[in-house]
Amino acid sequence: DTAVSQTPKYLVTQMGNDKSIKCEQNLGHDTMYWYKQDSKKFLKIMFSYNNKELIINETVPNRFSPKSPDKAHLNLHINSLELGDSAVYFCASSHMRGGEQFFGPGTRLTVL
Amino acid sequence: DQQVKQNSPSLSVQEGRISILNCDYTNSMFDYFLWYKKYPAEGPTFLISISSIKDKNEDGRFTVFLNKSAKHLSLHIVPSQPGDSAVYFCAATTLDSGTYKYIFGTGTRLKVLA
What we know:
The structure holds 2 protein chains of 2 kinds.
Chain A: E1 4-7, E2 10-13, E3 19-25, E4 31-37, E5 43-50, E6 53-57, E7 64-70, E8 73-78, E9 87-95, E10 98-103, E11 107-111
Parallel strand pairs in A: 2-11
Antiparallel strand pairs in A: 1-3, 3-8, 4-5, 4-9, 5-6, 7-8, 9-10, 9-11
Chain B: E1 4-5, E2 10-14, E3 19-25, E4 32-38, E5 45-51, E6 56-59, E7 62-67, E8 72-77, E9 86-96, E10 99-104, E11 108-113
Parallel strand pairs in B: 2-11
Antiparallel strand pairs in B: 1-3, 3-8, 4-5, 4-9, 6-7, 7-8, 9-10, 9-11
């Protein structure tokens, strides 16, 4: 039973396109996150949502827009993709009180 | 400004020996520290954590030590097994806007040699 799932696992697209990555968690967690792992292997937080409300929005271009239709889903939409957006994107969830996060398997985005 | 640092990008250890992975941090407001393990093509998985009010936490072969005065934590794996070969991330949390913000180190690749 998958706790945090992401689709797609791989995404290859051209510069300038718009794409979405979906994330779902079945753990009943309050808080969901998007992370970007770049070529230097830094895992940097992009967004955090708590009960469908945006809590943390790091310095991310506004081409990136998270959408949380309900507590169990946090999707990431990216407009006008650029070469520098190529990375692995991880979704995660946790209880609001903190503690361990549960990560999805990642989506490897390649922008050509 | 990297608030959580793992200065050793890689570490090789013989099977059966102790693996020690280190992590340094700069923010004294961090209240919780975690270690994650990551295999290729998978997301990080939680391994063990420690509250800032403790100095040691043990779970089976894994022990985390926290030295607050030195702003240093370490993960000890004894005995090391080939299946422990993975990238290990340390992370620290702080309360931000009513929710917990996690800051990760850059990871240490552990290779356990059979």
